[in-house]
Protein 1
Amino acid sequence: MQTALVIEDNENNMELITFILEAHGYTTLRAMTGSEGVVMAQSAAPDFVLLDIQLPDMDGAEVLQAIRATDIGRGMPIIAVTSYAMSGDRDRLLAAGCSGYIEKPIDPLLIINQVQGILERSR
Amino acid sequence: MSAPSIQRWLAESIAVVLAYWLTGHAVMQLQTGMAGANLLWLPAGVALSATLMRGAAALPAIALATLSFNLYISPASASALQAVATAIIMAAGSSTQAWATAWLLLRRSPKLQIASVADALIFILCAALGCTIAATVGTLALNQGMFSAGNPGLTWLTWLTWWVGDLSGMLIVAPVAIVVQHWRRGRREWSLLSLPIIGLGCSFTLVTAFIVKHIDHDARVNEFMSSGVAMGQALQRTLEISYRDLAALHAFFYNITPNRDEFHHFSAGLLARNGLIRSFNWAPYVTHAQRARFETDTGQAGQNPYRIYDLQEDGSHAPASGSAEYLPVLMTEPASANQKVFGFNLLSDPTRRDALALSRFTAEPRASGLVDLVRGGKAVIVYWPVYRSEFAHAPGAHDVDALRGYVSMALEIGRLADETLRPFEARKAETWLVDVTRPDAPALLYHHIDGAEARPEPGAIPDMEQLRQGIYQETGHSFAGREWVLISRPHGLDTGLSTNGQFVGILIGGLGFTFMLALYMIGRQRSEHELKARDDRLMSQNAVLTQLARSSLTPEITLERQLEELIATSAGTLKAERVSIWMLDESRRKLSCSMMFTHSTGEITRGLTLDIENAPNYFATLYEGRGFAADNAQTDARTQEFADSYLKPLGITSMMDVPLRVGGKLAGVICHEHVGPARKWAADEQNFAASIGDLASLMIEGDKRNTAEKALQEAYQALELKVQARTEELRTANERLRQLDQLKSMFIASMSHELRTPLNSIIGFTGVVLQGISGPLSDKQQDHLGRVYGSAKHLLALITDVIDISKIEAGYADVYIETFPLNQLIEEAVAVIQPQRLEKGLGMEVQMSGLSETVVLSTDRKRLLQCLLNLLSNAVKYSEQGTVRVRCQAEAERVMIEVSDEGIGIAPEALAKLFQPFERIDTHLRIKTPGTGLGLYLTRKIVTDLLHGDISAESEAGRGSTFRLWVPLVLEAPPRNT
């Protein structure tokens, strides 16, 4: 059973993602801020991270770099959840070392496929 | 006097003496001498010229020259003393003459200005007056010196010749000298020529006239002389005829002693033939012894008593005193008037007795002197002795006894001379017949003056020497033993002044011609001079006008300065003392002097005015619009109005005014005012003034135009500034609007974002529920929740499109350029649309023609893909059957992507509104086809605004549509609009 760290400030989105992941058999960890997410990624060592890049305290790229800066976080798959149609953000995040991205809005019918596809590619 | 001036004086003096001598000698060679003087005495002219040029300094040289020359020409016959005295007098006369004439001339005109015929006339008059001095002195000296007392006529002639000679010399030489002097002083004027012309002409005329006069005089003298000879011959002939008649009577007595009847008959015949013989007589020789018997016999013969009587001293008769012999008149013819003479003893009269004795001694006829006839009157009696025939041939044998008596005739000489000389009366002579038998006691027989009524008393003893002076003709006549001379002198001929047609004609003609010639030449010269002066003026006027016109075109110079220069130049060119500009005021009834230039001071003044009330005529003339020239402004009707108030105080005599016109209306006047003697404004000067007026008018008009132009320009600039300001305001407003628009777009964008977040939750959770993850749903729930899910999805698509459009319109849309092959993009798009296509059972065909198969684009991939998907999904959406075709074609710098279908197509009226927002094709398919209504609008926005391409659509309703879009192969990264 894989563990996913979801870093998401919006409670509705958090509930939706974790519900879908758990419904598909994933264990989820929840972080509501960027800094909390960085700490939890080190301490809990999840199998992968779903990172919303629009966070109240930190920029998504900063969070990404902070996680990648640790030994645990170096090889950890990190999937960015981006807002719609921000081509520049997507490139910037890929350059910063994220494994893949999922665009909002999250389609409950598609998200598991998207996540599993990214995880397979990053292996 | 300094040394150089002494040297100069000496040189000049020598020159004068030389000139005097040379001209004098030349004239002497010309042989123009006449009556002791010279008809063309050039030295007089030399003397006058020298005095005119050098004044009193020339007098010593003149005195020296005249003295030496007169000595040189004095006749050898004169004694040295006489010659010296005469020369001194003549030298004094000549010097005085030169000095006096020069004084007269210089007194009249110190600079010897000879500018007109009148001046030349005055010159001639002065010279004529001066010449009387030398003529008088010289004639007197001649009469007193070299010659004995002359005849008055000759003296007069000498004086006149002298005078003419000096005058001629002066008139020829002095004018030339004067002209040369003027020339050397730089006065090369035409008028100078008049004097030499007139001088030469007058001189030539005078000399010619006098020569003609002299020739005429000589001819008259010759005629007089020859007629005198003829007169003598006539007298001689008359005397000879009378002598012959007496000879006939003598012959009659040769052999007989006729009685009284016979005597009467014979002598009456002779007397009838010759009326000039007064009477014939016969006086027999009677001795004392025969006396008584003779008296008695004669008395008895018919004349009783006959007594021999003697003529007493007192003229009375007395019986003859006792004497040895008697010669009583016995017979006389005509007898009737001579009764008294019978018995008159001829021997009782001493005059007769002399002639009788001489006749008796020579036995030849002898005439008596003038005797008183017994019956009255005076006569010359010729006695002829009659001898007895035997002695007739021996007249030398004087025997008293042989003498029979005397025949005699009485010639009344006065009447005889009158009759004889009457045909010669036209000679105008004074005639004397003088008996000069005794040279010591000449006796006047006859004296007559032609044309004179009164007969001079004969008998006065004439002064023969006086008679034989001057012009006279003398013939000698030997008559009956007596010597007579007939002397005639011209009476009123040799005064030299008698009228003569030729003389007067030449004088009048010559002088007239001279003055006509002088007038003509002066006129010609004057007109030439005026023409040249006019030419000069015209040239300078042209130059001035050009200069002025040039300066008027210089905009930096103010109008004030231009006009000042204009009037100053006009004053200089026209030589006018004052030139002023007067402008009309607004009432047009008053002129104000805006500037006045005074030539002599070079100052410019202002401020006079002239009201129309004070000069109505002047204003009227100006309003007629023409300038005018008043040669005599103080009397000219147009300017006289201000003569007392303005012209006279300033001494203005002539005016020339030209109007100033601005805009075709009289605006003012330019006045030219002349001070000094009134002048005549020449035509060219008037033209020049008119040009000045025109130029001034142009300057004023030009200035006005410049001012107007400047104002116009300023107004234009102000307008432009206003427009700029307004444009700026508009731009600012626009900018604000644009900013507001951006704000609006940004607001919509952010609003859409905020709208989208909850919408994501709705879609997400609805999807989760629909999947049945959170529990099974009834069919009804499944259906209703599916509608919620669809509506939320539609709302999200709408919001997404709105966000895109707003971002593009606000300029915040990002363009992210990537490099990718076109075919990959097409494949992706076709793959994305495949589920919907297959669902509707539509075919798909991709055609990559030409280079488009391999072409690589550098543009915003996602945006292009979005557009392509939009077109493809539309094609699928509006097709129920057929094939969707994608065709690509690479062009030079862009690529064309065409998407066509075989669907319902678009009506033409809809085609025009196809790319407008919220315009959906109004068909029956509307409800069935989902869409935001913003798709094509957004596509066009992306293609044109972001990708810098183009899009078009064509369609036929019911047969499908074709959309084409073009994008550049390489999209330049746009500057980021923040």
Protein 2
Amino acid sequence: MRRGIFFLVLFGLTVVVAAGTLRSRQIPATPLEQLKQRFAHRHVPSVDHTKLAALQQPFESGRAVTAACLSCHTERGREVMASSHWNWTRQEYIPGRGIRTIGKRNILNNFCIGVSSNLEGCDSCHAGYGLVDSGFDFTDERNIDCLACHDNTNTYAKSRGGLPAVSVDLRHVAQHVGRPLRANCGTCHFFGGGGNNVKHGDLEQAQFEGDRSLDVHMGTDGANLQCVDCHTAENHRMLGKSYTLSSMNRNRVTCEQCHSGRPHGDDLLNQHTLEVACQTCHIPAYARANATKMTWDWSTAGQLRDGQPFEVKDDRGNLTYASIKGTFTWQRNVTPDYAWFDGTAGHYLLGDRVAASTPVAINTLYGSAGDPDAKILPVKIHRANQIYDPVTMLLVQPKLFAPQAGEGAFWKDFDWERAAAEGMKSVGLPFSGQYTFVRTEVTLPLNHMVAPKEQSLGCRQCHTRDGSRLAGVTGVYLPGRDRNETVDRLGAWALFGAIGLALLHGSARAVAARTRGRRS
Amino acid sequence: MTMGVHVYSGFERFWHWTQAALILFLALSGFEVHGSLTFLGFDQAVHYHRLAADAFIVLVAFAIFWHFTTGEWRQYVPTTRFLRAQVEYYVVGLFRGAPHPTRRTPLSKLNPLQKLVYLSLKILVIPVMVVSGLLYMFYRYPRPFGIEALNVSGLRAIAVVHTAGAFLLVAFVVAHVYLITTGRTLTSNLKAMITGDEEPA
């Protein structure tokens, strides 16, 4: 009988363990198989552009190429002219501010500050020809630069005025156009802010030809996806945007659009997706190949050696000082910050009066715990020290770029006062003549550089008392991280009290028993 | 040698020992999830804690059935008779070698103190643990187009109640394990729960 009970208990436990072991076996997630099959099909173009009569001419200019493109693709011009790549602005509803027309053209950023009065230095990333000043004709479709995005030869390059570089063989490029490749998008999006990986931390030149351990989607030894495989487009309206320039929860690229909301074989993990964005676990670190800029101090800019601007680089080749821009710090393999995000964002808008006592938020990601739309998202926070007018309490849009000295551009004349006056004049805002520098912060959601699943976060990196990655994320109870101090203290007293009482009572019994034994 | 009295049926002992093993396992894995100790690793602890919880609920269901079909539930009807005597026994009599104030028979297996403590486990602590545990496993955060009443905006209250109950259970187990040594001999109660037979005095 005794043995029977023992075996019954043992049997029960064995069943539990066996059930657990069997259940934990991973069921292959079928959507992933389907995705592999879908992207194993390579796009085969239906047109060979080398055979088209319209493209058999020696093109004099980019505009001539565009005219040739539009002779067949008759409606594409209107589509591009409705896009953000062209307009650099769009209408956005900003919570608390209403509907505003915002974009690269009028929003201050936390890097080279802003394009106003500096268009000539920025136009090499405009999808058009000749955006050098406010005189640019946004209604002339021949100003569209088709090749910047559609060149498939990787020989196209833009130069002054956003025009094709003289070295480009326009006929050759025009005859070899197609779907945009990583090389097309990356030429601008990997180098924003004036260098590789300056801005985002998860978009950089290593992704041109990286491996899947760097980026599981774009890795050449993996799915080898192009940007436009996720950033799909219909009539030149592309999915995806940056929350440094947009405010609304629309037009986003999501992991779910391919992977569904229940991508794991384990339902416990699937439940996380209600509150935790996929990126949180699947982007364990950003800037995993080359460093990204973490801080930018404009206040040290303007130092000259023998009257000449100079640069300092660290031993890995990262620019740590430039006379034209100030002092930078860089970091590689950075652990993200984490924030609640509901898909809407606010922005510092030109003319906003701000106190200089706390860092000025260049953008703000909205969302909090308990908000059904909000999820925990990994972000990069880039901190800077930017020029500010203490009298008007405005962040200053300085004039930085000019082709030559004497026009008041800081990068040529190194005179902040004049650069501020020129820049603020260009945006129609006052400048008192006084300037100082204030701390500013921008929050950049991390979406790229998704790591292979083996590198994704384990439970303990968040569910832990000390050093949780989500230590700063409040409003949610995280088992393993959180506890009720009072309950834990009372509970410990109850437990150790019981142990203590048992020991005390037991030893008293032993003593009493021995005493009785001696007496008898 | 006289025959002992059979006090614990086969099922009762199976139930007791399986429950003991499960509670021990649930405590270890549960306090690992809570962040108090290291045992299986967090993910495995969560996984097996849930499985053991499923097993525990099945066991409780069988135990409830057994209690009602056999009428054994009457064992837990609380009484104040001899309650004072039982407390005095633990505080004073035990040290003087006084006899137990109550005797275990198949019809009355539990002393008045046990009746009280076990009853509160059965109708208070275990149900609170099962309910808070089920909520812990099957809670869902607010989501659009769902049934409002099923939404839980956070785990905090559920987790805190579940933790408090766990501390009570563990403290009970400690006291229980100690008090079983207060039988006729140090191990007589343990033997009874293993063999089912109360050895004759």
